[in-house]
Amino acid sequence: MTPRTLYEKIWDAHVVSSRDDGSSLIYIDRHLVHEVSSAQAFEGLRKAGLPVRRTDLTLAMPDHNVPTTPRVDAAGNLIPIVDPASAIQLAALESNVAEFGVPFFTATSPEQGIVHVVGPEQGFTLPGCTLVCGDSHTAAHGALGALAFGIGTTEVEHVLATQTLRMARSRSMEIRVEGKLGHGVSSKDVILAVIGRIGVGGGIGHVIEYRGSVFDAMSIEERLTVANMSIEAGARAGLFAPDETTFAYLKGRPMAPRGEQWEHAVARWRELRSDEGAVFDKSITIDACEIAPSVTWGTNPEQVVSIDGAAPRLEDFADEGRRAAVARALDYMGIAPGQAMIDVEVDHVFIGSCTNSRIEDLRAAARVLEGRHLSPRIQSAIVVPGSGLVKRMAEAEGLDRIFTDAGFEWREPGCSACLGMNPDVIPPLGRCASTSNRNFVGRQGPDARTHLMSPAMAAAAGLAGHLADVRAYIGEPA
Amino acid sequence: MTMAVVAGRAYPLGLSNVDTDQIIGSDWLKTISKVGLGEGAFAALRDNGVTVFDDERYKGSEILVAGANFGCGSSREHAAWAIVDTGIRVVIAPSFSDIFSSNAFKNGILTAVVDEAAISPLMAVASADGEDGLLKVDLIDQIIETPDGQRRPFNIDPFRRECLIEGLDEIALTRTEDPAISAHEARVSLVEPWLAGAV
User: Cα separations (Å) of B124 from A216, A340, B49?
Assistant: First the structure.
């Protein structure tokens, strides 16, 4: 048999039918639904008189719009959503899931959170499954060996109605990071380095498989951060072959298989790896020792540099179009060409988002902050756990106290300041050290300036009041 | 809606990596409708010095010429709804984000992929005055014609091309395959029962 990549194996196992034009109908095993990309899809079903085909493969929860301030008052009553448009959209989700019988975590249920934190945490995401959601960061679930990708609302409707999608097979790309990461270098730095190398369009039309010693050594939460940002390199999805780390993570999760079925599943999942000799359409290798703690300087995630580096100089770009794009990005960011990154002052800190709001992220930030306080420069600093379960675990470990003692606000789970759709926005010209995934123009609010970095780096920036090297705060390696 | 030929003036945007936040800002994502988003289209670009969308010469154009990686970022179909609402039916670029091009197609927008080298001459035509500034995008022959007589090929996925030309209803089409979908489900519940039901 021809050696196949992991992607090809998962793809082949989900082909319902194929057409001569190269498109296939692909079965979807898992579908996550949230308020922003689903209302028009449910409306389409209603107009066509169609049910949701497989409510038992579908899971809904609010995350994008929900405020991260308390949701119930002291008497236990729901606090109304102030923004009328958000209130309507959240109410639409509640009535749609009730009408169509879709399982639902309400904004006040302990399991609620960002879909991409909750899916893995509940064991809803499984190796070898196809998983979609009307959100581009669905790529995150590839950390567990699921073929997972974001879709638009019309496709959400198509999946709700048919549990399938019609698509053409992507090309495959292998990204290897080999060696050992340096002190203070996180999985966020690794994926930023990957995007910096291949560019924000480098993965278009491809599914990435992350391979090599650095990825093998990562925890599932670290892999989730990496796979999550596959889309920021333009890739359709990012995959990690499931291994013992994956199985240990999943075992006992509420929706994961149990007993004899668990044993069968694990035996099957062990086959989910690229065969020896499988051919990738593209291969990239990065040496781990080239990766340093990093920050973005511009308005897309490929515009990244190590913390001891500087913003680019315009004369470094021969191509006129690229020079103009860099000039525009620097102008928006209020950064001078050639400015050292550690000289960039910061006014806001955001620790959260589907990229970096899991327990290990919060522990990493708390380690930097313990016994210290935010710089007086900082106007706002929030920590937004990715789910209710993450929040409670962090509180049990006392992390909330470390954050609040340092001057952070400790919030309720949701997408928060990642995307400016809820009350958590960065004011115009405000500069934010952010653990999120996009530094686009206006992403965190009109004219807001975003620097992407790891949780530990965001914590260090908060303490210093400027972009800072976390290695100065965490001591020497043990 | 079906499509064969779209001809006329084009917005000469030309920028690369135009992300979906620039096509439609997140404040527009709270709508539960698909219409009216044209008002917010390209606001982040217009607020940051891009003038083509407010230039009288291009008003009402059905074609947009852009740089590589158009529509990168979020999966928000609102970006496609916003573009449709402005009257644009064709976007020409060297590459598109996968999710955006899928969303565009579902809303009857042709994402025409051309060689990187074709963008500069197409920009020159789109920026020209009068009849010299007219483009003709022919979906049947997969050709973009310019007034100087150049005929440039473009790529599009064959299934999407057929759907755009015929105006097919995809859900209705997939529902004709229901027996095959049910057979797949029956197979999975035997071989991988843990996938057959989550919640």
Answer: 50, 38, 20
- Choosing from A290, A311, A330, the residue where a domain stops is A290
Residues of A in contact with B195 (CB under 8 A): 29, 126, 128-129
Do residues B56 and B148 both lie within one domain? yes
Among the listed residues B71, B87, B80, the one whose alpha carbon sits nearest the alpha carbon of residue B18? B71
Quick check: B67 contacting A, CB < 8 Å? yes
Question: Are B112 and B189 contained in the same domain?
Answer: no
For residue A1, being part of any structural domain is answered with: no
Q: What's the ipTM?
A: 0.95
Chain B's closest residue to A35, CA to CA, is B30
* Long-range contacts of B33-41, Cβ-Cβ distance < 8 Å, separation of 24 or more: B33/A40, B34/A40, B34/B77, B34/B81, B35/B81, B35/B85, B36/B85, B37/B78, B37/B81, B37/B82, B37/B85, B38/B82, B38/B83, B38/B84, B38/B85, B38/B86, B38/B87, B39/B85, B40/B82, B41/B82, B41/B83, B41/B85, B41/B86
* Cβ–Cβ below 8 Å for A443 and B26: yes
Domain total for chain B?
2
Q: Residue B186: give the domain boundaries.
A: 169-199
Interface with chain B: mutation pick from A26, A105, A162, A304, highest number of B CBs within 10 Å: A162
The values of phi and psi at residue A458, to 5°, are: -65, -40
Q: Is A316 in the same domain as A448?
A: yes
Which CATH number do you get for residue A226? 3.40.1060.10
Examine the domain organization and report whether B129 and B88 are in the same domain: yes
* Range(s) of the domain holding residue A143: 6-167
- Residue A419 CA to residue A275 CA, distance in Å, equals 39
> What is the number of domains present in chain A?
3
Each of the 478 residues of chain A gets a pLDDT tens digit; together they read 899 999 999 999 999 999 999 999 999 999 999 999 999 999 999 999 999 999 999 999 999 999 999 999 999 999 999 999 999 999 999 999 999 999 999 999 999 999 999 999 999 999 999 999 999 999 999 999 999 999 999 999 999 999 999 999 999 999 999 999 999 999 999 999 999 999 999 999 999 999 999 999 999 999 999 999 999 999 999 999 999 999 999 999 999 999 999 999 999 999 999 999 999 999 999 999 999 999 999 999 999 999 999 999 999 999 998 999 999 999 999 999 999 999 999 999 999 999 999 999 999 999 999 999 999 999 999 999 999 999 999 999 999 999 999 999 999 999 999 999 999 999 999 999 999 999 999 999 999 999 999 999 999 999 999 999 999 999 876 5
Q: Quote the CA–CA distance of A229 and B100 in Å, as a whole number.
A: 17
